[in-house]
Structures are given as structure tokens and as C-alpha cells.
Design a protein that fits this description.
Elements: H1 3-29, H2 36-40, H3 43-65, H4 68-71, H5 78-90, H6 96-112
Helix pairs in contact: 1-3, 1-5, 5-6
């Protein structure tokens, strides 16, 4: 996989990771009694769905140009990106085990994406 395609793939993973944070914010903003109106008025949810839509289109483009066995391991990076963003923007704890696991995943992505 060339550098440009790798960067597009990483952009998709980052978009999906940001979408996870938006879904978390959407869940926190929901009222105790769930209704269709509450879902439709939830700006966090609308933003998350929009981002997921755009990111899914980007992922389809990536898969058109890259073999799945090379592109998919990049999705493992979300296991590091999501907790790091949750720590930075939502104040959630970030443990050394998460970072260590993320480092192992990054090593696996590097190994799997080499020809």
C-alpha cells in the first residue's frame, strides 16, 4: 500500500474514532425516556451519523484501491485513538495497559501492512 493510500486509510480510522466520541456525547445528552423526537433533536447524534456516513464512503474508496488484508489492520488503531481522544476531550482515564496494548496493535499494523 502506498503512502497516500495509507494516509487515506488512517483518515478513515481517525474519522471513525472521532465518531465514537460523538456517539458518547450523544448518549450522555439523551433524556431518560427515549423518544424519536429526542433522537432527532440530538445534535451530537446527527454529527456522529454524518461523520460515520462520510467516513464509510471514504472506507469504500479505500477498499476499492487496497486489498482488505492490508487495509483492515489499520482499524486496530482505533483501539488506541479512541481512548486517547476520550482522555483528551472527555476527561476519561487513560491507563498504561491501554497504551501498551495500543503499541502492540501499532506494531501489528506495521507488520501486517508490509509487503
Amino acid at each position: 500500500m502506498n503512502i497516500a493510500l495509507s494516509l487515506y486509510t488512517i483518515a478513515c480510522v481517525v474519522g471513525i474514532s472521532i465518531g465514537q466520541l460523538l456517539f458518547k456525547k450523544a448518549a450522555a445528552a439523551l433524556p431518560p425516556t427515549l423518544s424519536l423526537l429526542a433522537l432527532l433533536q440530538n445534535g451530537w447524534l446527527i454529527a456522529a451519523l454524518a461523520l460515520y456516513g462520510v467516513t464509510t464512503l471514504g472506507w469504500v474508496w479505500v477498499l476499492r484501491h487496497a486489498p482488505l488484508h492490508l487495509a483492515y489492520p489499520f482499524m486496530g488503531l482505533a483501539f488506541l485513538i479512541v481512548p486517547t481522544l476520550a482522555w483528551a476531550f472527555l476527561g476519561e482515564p487513560l491507563h498504561w495497559r491501554t497504551l501498551a496494548g495500543g503499541a502492540l496493535i501499532m506494531a501489528g499494523v506495521a507488520l501486517a501492512s508490509t509487503s
